[in-house]
Amino acid sequence: MNSRIAVAGGGIAGLSAALLLARQGYRVDLVERDGPPPDDLADIQSWERPGAPQVRHPHMFFGLFRQLLRTRLPDVHADLLAHGLEEVDMTAPPGVEAPEDATDMAGFGCRRATVEWALHRAVRRQDGIEVHHGRSVREVVVEDGRVRGLRLDDATLEAVAVVDATGRRSPLAAAFTGEAEESPCGNVYHSRFYRLLDGVPQPPLFLSPIVFAGGAGFGGGLYAHDNRTFAVVFARLPEDEVLGQLRDVDTFEAATRAVPQFEPWLRPGSAEPIGPTLPMAGLTNTWRELTPEAPAGYLPIGDVLCTTDPVLGRGASFALSGAVRLNDLLAEHGADLAAVAADLRAYARDDLRPWYDDAVREDDQRTRSWRATVEGLPEPEAELPLVVLAVLAGMRDQRLWELAQRRANLLTPPDALDVPEVHERVQAVFASGWEPPVLSGGPSYDDLTKALSAPTD
Question: Edge-to-edge, what's the strand order for the sheet holding 161-164?
Fold first, then answer.
């Protein structure tokens, strides 16, 4: 099939799908309601993306994303590396030389806008893609059970297929998917971006591009990003109006000063803020099922099908993996769009649904724990998640390290570690008397809330 395809949505899922499909020989119309990024990466902080507010918050790009980007869109990967992206090697524990047969594994922290900037550059260079900025999609045009086009505000684009990459609030999905299954994430988060000043060396990281803090009553982290930028984020319960004060910039800065792990990055003379303090609320885990009755040629990917708690950092990886899987299915089935849709449903059910269920469980456990802390009640009995135990014990066991990192980086299913080998290896490491390094040591909930009301110097 060598026909025209419309891609609705110009985020990671839509941009990646457009590139892959054009390189397969399709003519692509890419429709995006927001404007294009600036030409100069130095101006990226000022890029307005009202249609994608998550772009303004910190991001972690796991091994799955990096692997797919490096193998399927290598020019975009190379462009990011040439423009300030620094990867974090996770092949072996810190300070340990990786064995020759170790699986190559890396991830990276990066501003979401920087990744999309590089994808846009590739789109502009790619023949066969026409981009329609500042246009909103309205509905899929269907005749005789098949897609015939995509209706915009003021025109209709003819197309044999519509790739819906418009996100969780898709204006197209309701007609072709079952009722959305939703579960509240149980958190609101507040973040701010900074840049290390010239001449200031980047403080060391440990295990990942994230410096963690918190865990009892709140969450927090510092995400190292591209070009010496980084972001601080605090997460809280939606009903916690004490930490709701974090929306105020002075209160947010007081909170950052209460976290010892952040001090090397934010001590006076080290960094400057490059953006306001921004909230993110109304977060839900969302699951949609593409119905068998959907017209041939309606092809949803990314957050349209599955949204998980942004704090878990999985959305970008699943956006790219959805674009890759769709491209491969079209290469396999060609004009048989019904077969493409059937396999896309199977991919969502088999590959994405387990991660949705995992996110719901994680959010429920964390919410119950945080509420107990905030209300002054005893903490619910809970053990560290197996993936955390495996990563820590993996610092003493290379085989365990690789298994744990593959799961943590979304390269294996969420239950991949729940096997006898992993349990036995974890038990053996901790039974040896070895103790892992302290990963947090941050303020308690009471310490943090007191710091918010402390007078400034």
Answer: 129-133, 27-32, 4-8, 161-164, 298-300
